[in-house]
Amino acid sequence: MSLLILPAARTRTRRQAHSLVEEPHFDATVVRRAVAAIDKQARRGPRMGLSVRSDLPGLKVADVRRALAGLPSPGDYRVVIKPMRYRTRPHLGGLCEFDMGRIILRVPEPFRPFSELVYFSARRKPGEGMRFAWTAEKVRFRTRRDVLRFVYLHEWLHWYLREMRGLRAGAETACDRFALRNFRRRRVSVDDALEAIRGCRMQPVPEHLGIAA
């Protein structure tokens, strides 16, 4: 008796036909419009609900929201309205507290229309030493709304420089220039801020402070 070792049976496999997929067609005009829309949306800055607290008697949160309508948002920072007591004459005052995550706007109380010099430009004088020739404009603040919008824009640019650009936020002249140009406009955007700081030399925030750009 003999055993035959037969070769393994061969199985013939059929080649599967590859289905042809039509190459997607991109319209260059549509792509350009989509990219432009994304870029426009990004340049508008953060669009968030404005968190407001009013410590000023007689000034409601709804009144503050209406006064600041059309202005850019400070991200997750809170806007706090406080009264400013004065001895002789009203004046402007505000503060951007980076460690507390809030912007404080001070409104003169009791309020009456007042004027204030706003320094918006400076040129270095020739010669030795750090001497500057300042340019100022006398601005009339007739209502609380004028004060709120001006001080908010000034402090908002401090916030923008540090939190969004990672720069030192002590650019007082640029902040005054930005507020002066825009506080009476109905709508203000990030592009207006970039125009105000054009040509300014600002140092980045040191890394050990842990401030995100």
Report strand order across the widest sheet: 1-2-4-3
Instruction: Output mean pLDDT.
Output: 79
Shape: globular
Describe the largest sheet. Answer: 4 strands, mixed
Question: Top keywords for this entry?
Answer:
single chain; 213 residues; alpha/beta; four-stranded mixed sheet; two-stranded antiparallel ribbon; 5 helices; globular; disordered N terminus
What's this model, at a glance?
The protein has 213 residues and is an alpha/beta fold. It has one domain.
What does this structure look like?
The chain is α/β, with parallel strands linked by helices and 213 residues long. The protein has one domain (47-209). Helix content is 29%, strand content 21%. It is built from 5 helices and 6 strands, in the order αβαβββββααα. The chain has helices spanning 28-43, 61-67, 144-164, 172-182, 190-196; strands spanning 51-54, 78-84, 93-97, 102-108, 114-124, 132-141. The strands form 2 sheets. It has a 4-stranded mixed β-sheet, covered by helices on one side. The chain has a two-stranded antiparallel ribbon with strand order 5-6. α3 packs across α4 and α4 packs across α5. The chain is globular. The model is unreliable at 1-8, 18-23 and 208-213 (pLDDT under 50).
